[in-house]
Every structure is written in C-alpha cells, then in structure tokens.
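Suppose a classmate hands you a notebook page containing two proteins, each written out with its sequence and a corresponding row of structure tokens. How would you begin to make sense of it? This section walks through that situation. The first entry is reproduced here exactly as it would appear on such a page.
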Amino acid sequence: MLTSSPPNLSQLALLFLKIGIIGFGGPAAHIALMEEEVVKRRGWMTKERFLDLVGATNLIPGPNSTEMAIHIGYIFGGLAGLIITGVCFITPAVLITGFLAWIYTTYGTLPDVAPIFAGIKPVVIAVIFQALWRLGKKALKTRQLLFIGLGVIGLLILGLNEIIALLLGGIIGMFILKKFATFPLIVAGIGGATAVATPSKIPPTLTGLGLFFLKVGSVLFGSGYVLVAFLEADLVQGKGWLTRQQLLDAIAIGQFTPGPVLSTATFIGYQILGVSGAIVATLAIFFPSFIFVLLLNPLIPKLRQSAWAGAFLDAINASAVALMVAVIFNLSLATWLQPYRNLPFNLLAIILSLVSGILLLRFQVNSTWLILAGALIGLLLKQLG
C-alpha cells in the first residue's frame, strides 16, 4: 500500500547518494537498504512491485543492486530518473575506489580499513535479515511458493549455478501454479567463458580497456566473484595488463568499499591507464545496466497481466528470496565463525548482529545509524587492542 506521493528527482538523488555511501555488504545489503527506504519508510512502492523488480534484475546481466536503483529511478523519473539514481548510487563507490587507487599507486599499499569493515559486517547481516523477513512474507505467500523457495535453496546447496537455479524455480513454479501444459520457452545465453592464454603483454589502450569492461558488463551474471574469473583470464593471463597481486588488492578494495562491487573496475582502470583508464573502465562496465533496464522495465507490468508470466514472476520472486537466504547464510558463517581472541568463533560479531536485528525489527531503528555505529565500534575495538 502506497503511503506517500511519488518522489521528485531531488529526493531520488539524495536517497540513492545516501545508499551509495552507506551501502556496505554487497548487493543483498544494498537491496535491503532500498527496500527499507523505498517501501517501508517512504511508501513510494508496494512490496509486490519491489519484488517484481528484484526478480527481473536477477534474470539479466549486470550488478543487481545497481539495476534496482536504475529501475526505481526510471519508474518515478523516466529517463532522467534512470540516469540520476544510477549515477548517484554508483558515484560514492567510484570516488572512494579512485582515491584508494591513487593511494595504492603512490604509496604501494592500502590503508587499514579492516576494523571498520569488521564492525559493519555483523550489522549488515541484520539489515539483510530484516529485508528477507519482510520480503519473504510477501513472496512466499502460498504453500506452493514456499516449497519452490525451499527447492531453490536445495539446488544452491548442491552447488547449482544461482542463475540456473533461479530459472528452474521460475519454470517449475509456472507449472505448479498454473498447471500449463505448454508455454513459451525463452532461452537466454549466459556469457561464454573467456579463453585463457599465455600472458602476451599487449600494450594497453583505452579502446581495448573499454571494450573489455563493456563485454564484462554485458554478460556478467552472479556475484562479484564471477568478475574475478574474467579479470584473471583476460587481464592477468591473457593481456598481461595486471599482476596477480594487483588483482588481489583490487578484490580487497571491492570488499571493503560501499556501493556496487563492480567499482573494482575503477581501481583496475587506474592501475592500467591512470585517471583516463579509471573513467573509461567505470563507464564501460556500468553502461550496459542502464540499457538493460531501459529495455526491460516497461515489460514488467505487461508480464504481470499475463497469467503464465505472472505465475513465472511469482515463482522467480520466491526463488530470489531463496538466493537471499543463501547469501545471508554464507555471510553469517564467514562473519560469525572467525576466531576471536581465545574463542573459535566471533562472539562479539554474533552479539552485534543480534542486537542490530532486535533494534531493526522491534524498535524500527534506521539502518543508517546502525551501520555507522558498527563502523565506530570496529574502530574503537581496534584502538583498545
């Protein structure tokens, strides 16, 4: 149920600039923040429509959270809104990454921000869980959809690719929900593998760099770790433009900066061709997302009007919630099971996650303040030793 008038361009810009600044923790955390702000706090969009957008972004290449920001901007502001929300969401990460790239190139090392991230991660788990709880209640609205979600979780546990699991959930759900004997079959080609070659030390050019990141942005499905495979195969082993150590440091940058992980391209572009390389790499990797959303967004309401497509979207939404369950499970294990002091697990991180969850779910505390508090706690613990 909508509780307020649609936002103007200034409101969209300020909101997504804020999310871009505080958006630590990857796409699931970004989407959780968007759900809290756009659906819960501001009432600009219904949960049903938000879920449709989440499901749709999982089916196309590119960074899911960036495409969610672009979708929301396009819905409320047309082409101008599409550009403004996308740019505002991406810019903080790009500027921070570019600054860190300059430090890295100038001084040969990265600043120690691990304590900040250590304090933020437990809070991010709670933020994702809050969104999962709210969206899950809406997406898993029938027993059939619950079984579909559980089935997708099972496929993910067995190691099936997340995109294939999502599509299977949608197709099987369409059968279960509508009992269609036949239906249109859409086959989407997922980005092909990049050949691994012996390093050839081809001199880097802006055109070559731009074309590489344009290709990556056009075919990249899945998590940011899929990006690593492209970078390793093409830029390290293929062209020899990047050393393995530079690649590892670029991955580290992507892990502890807010906003979309594809801002890693900014860091890599700077390492290869300086400021111009950073600009070209950034524009190239994000450009396809704007085009995909521009083409897809008008189709989503039409899909809802079709019985079979509506069932497919319902099943995709249930499957997308299952993907969020997998994300929060893996993130929780990685955060909570780290040895801390004399314990085999991180008791402080567990407590911080639980307290944050209670403050979010029970007392409706704004997640922005909790993320900032987590960062301060991380810094304080570092100082106390």
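The notebook's second entry, a different protein, reads as follows.
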Amino acid sequence: MEWREETLIPTHIEVVWEVFQDKNSAKLDPSVTAHTLIEGKEDSIGAKHVQTYVEGKKKITAVVETVLYKDEPNRKIKEIIYKEEHAFSTKLRFELIKLNENETQLIFEGNKEPVNLKGKLKMKFTARRESDRSIQHVVQCIRRAAGA
C-alpha cells in the first residue's frame, strides 16, 4: 500500500520542522509512549530508536531508523523505516518546502508492505478507508503540533 498526501501549512518552515525532531515524536504521533535512541546521533542519518506506541489496547514496539535527513533553509526531508509486529515493513517520508515566510508545503508519503503471511492477511482485511483515515490523522497531528 502506498500513499502521498500534500497540504499547505500556514506556518514558517522552521516551526513545522521542529515537529519532526526526534525529541518530539509524541507530537508527531500521540500514540507514541517511548522513543529511545539506541544507535547513532539524534536527528541524523543512521539514528535508530526503539519506539513504543499504543494501538487500541495493544502495545507495539519497533526499531525506527532514520534513512534520510536533510535540513536546508528552504527544503527539509526526513525519511524513516521500521518493521511493525514482524508483519509489515513501513517507510515514511516527510518533505517540507518553504513557500514564503508564513507558508510551508508538506508532502507526506510512504508505503507499508507485508513481510509474511500474517502481514498479507492483515493487509487484505484492513479497509483502505481505515488507512486513509490514519494518514489524515497524521497530517492533522502535524498541523496541530505546528500551531496551524
């Protein structure tokens, strides 16, 4: 499953970028209960974190790796990969483009691939509408955390 969502955030790029810093993982996703560095340096390529989040009544732990991190004045990118429940491999990419002093374009894209039979079955029975709601929820969390 792949997705791409674009939205305008009426806030300066640096304010939006702050949401994507490792120390702010819970702002990006309120279901995150722990985000602990285990390898590398915060906010850099190669950083690995053990992340715990709650999904319903279930606690899920995954190792999240930063595979791309660009911090330029007018363009910023953070890309992470992780495996969840030993069933899915997920890649998330967040790109910010400075349009002017008070507007930032957010491009949120990613993909979620099953890695075994359990993942294939779960994906088959998960409605696309549910996934779309989840993507919209992430975008709303970003907008809210950025003060938009």
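A careful reader of the second entry would note: The longest strand covers residues 58-71.
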